[in-house]
User: Fold these one by one.
Assistant:
Number 1:
Amino acid sequence: MRPENQSGVSQFLLRGLPIGPEQQSAFFTLFLAMYLTTVLGNLLLILLIRLDGRLHTPMYFFLSHLAFSDVSFSSVTVPKMLMDMQTQDHAILYSGCVTQMYFFMVFTALDNFLLTSMAYDRYVAICHPLHYITFMRKELCILLVAGSWILSCVSSLSHTLLLAQLSFCGDNTISHFFCDYAALLKLSCSDTSLNELVIFTVGMAVITLPLICILTSYGRIGATILKVPSTKGICKALSTCGSHLSVVSLYYGAIIWLYFLPSSNTSSDNNIIASVMYTVVIPLLNPFIYSLRNRDIKGALEKLLNRVTVLSQ
């Protein structure tokens, strides 16, 4: 059966960002610049990690996959948002909406699992430095990334298949700038109790459990740091995980604001602002957070620029 026959509608209308017509051009330019910076910054980070042998370590292996996930995550929603702002055509086909929702949820879950793997890597590096090479073998790193991809795809597929069973009749305007799963459930005229149960169950596995693992890892790291007698040792330990902790705080802060704070659920505008935070702003900031205070990344960038300079002469 074709999706549009099952749903009762062939397309949805995206409400878009809560901004006036006179502000569209300014915000279009702003978000276009942010998106291009996100793509170029993360791709540059991936390139540096691939080209520089000093960065072929578990931490940067996970970071390269996080950078790819951030580019993909932002690319799922931002181009459509920019096109809607430019053309004022807010329509999206049912099949396109479901596809966008699927990949949005894939990369949301993937970010969670990759951040958890990176937290485990920092835990082993600081709490068990003598066993780091033994624990963080190449095979384990590949297994963690592959497992992250598989779990992300399966969790997203479960929501997508359940959504395909719902019927949509009447209003087809989504109060968002992309096909948000929660917004789609509000438009359905079918019973969504099973969908909500799966959201709670899968959400525990995709969001809550990784967050608990991250907090546990940093709790152990904190306890280990406090045992370090020298201030220099404490600063060195903090510098190795400060960037990751900043990204975790931004990412989960936006999620908690959006999904767990009752005050944020009273206004769809607040939901949209929080969504912009973790779909546009955080992927933009990640390359800068991981590179500005990172000597290895700075060294790799200088090496690449010197190579380009020599080749251009």
Note: The radius of gyration is 21 Å.
Number 2:
Amino acid sequence: MLSRLQELRKEEETLLRLKAALHDQLNRLKVEELALQSMINSRGGDEMLSSQSASEQSQDTLVHVDNEASINQTALELSTRSHALEEEEEEEEEEESDS
């Protein structure tokens, strides 16, 4: 019983790290999307068309978030990201303790 509890705690920690990594990846993709939209707009693209396509893309993204097949087909680079996340968390903790 105790070993099962420890196993579940480890799984929970892993899932929380995975959630943080996915959240980070999502934020990076959003920033990249905004940068690409800005580049398109600065090249003389029609703002009306780009805003319409952006809203369509965001709706598509919402649909894909709930689509299990789409989620399973998504390639993730978590092994290096989790290490980077741990380093960032350590740096943040050091900064907070210095304050």
Note: The chain is about 90% helix and 0% strand.
Number 3:
Amino acid sequence: MAASGLLLSHSSNLCFRKTQFPKTELLKAKTFSELGFVTSQLGGVKIERNQPFAKPIGAVRRPAVQPVARRVCPFTGKKSNKANKVSFSNHKTKKLQFVNLQYKKLWWEEGKRYVKLRLSTKAMKTIEKNGLDAVAKKAGIDLRKE
């Protein structure tokens, strides 16, 4: 028989019983493991956990999923449109109509270099008509960063 709610019987079964804790001890029991050690029935391996696992020093936390570029044009602000897909039987299902975004290298006259941008085809027509500097200034985009 062991402390804190663990009952080790001779028939090699692990049994847990509910113990009565004051509220302060219950909070401590949640943060730290209730069991000091457990001996495995298979190989006599001793598993100890006195403190919660700590991150190694200098460990870099990375997101599980890499961020994906949004389907929004930075120059015109165009984004996907919600629409219905209508079948022959007139059954409507929801769908998204995405913006026609393209990766394009454009010559930036003021910076004397090419700038690679992801923009909609509508923005390409607007840039041809008004110029890259004027459209970027109106959209509030600083081309020097890119």
Note: The chain is about 20% helix and 25% strand.
Number 4:
Amino acid sequence: MVKLEEVSVDQIDEVEVLSEEDYSDFSDDEDFDDEDESLLDRITALKDIIPLKHRNRVSSSVSTLASWSKTGATFVGKSAWVITTSMLLLVLPLALEIEKEQALVAYEKEAMQQQGAQQMLSSPYGQAPAGQPQQQQQQVRPPGF
């Protein structure tokens, strides 16, 4: 912030004029503390340094990038929703039916093994009874195969 002071005519004569040798572009001010300056102040100061043409180009680029990012995120979100609901409606029931079928096949196989073990225990020395031919164990096939 700029502080204005009225200077009287008497004070103008007392002002010391510096020669070119005494003048410097760099400040020797030790009173200036850059830690008091916030990031927002520094960015605002860049407004004076960067030309309007470049600022508009950067602003346009950032706006375009933000727009594309928003569009991409929306597309990814909607795609994830469609894929997830499709999986729940189509694949999950199929997986449950396949698991149920495998459990049924395992149960039938176990029942056949128990039946074969009972026949072996009921006949002497693991031979088939005289009136019955020996049964061959068949592989259990799921329906439709």
Note: Residues 87 and 93 are 9 Å apart (CA to CA).
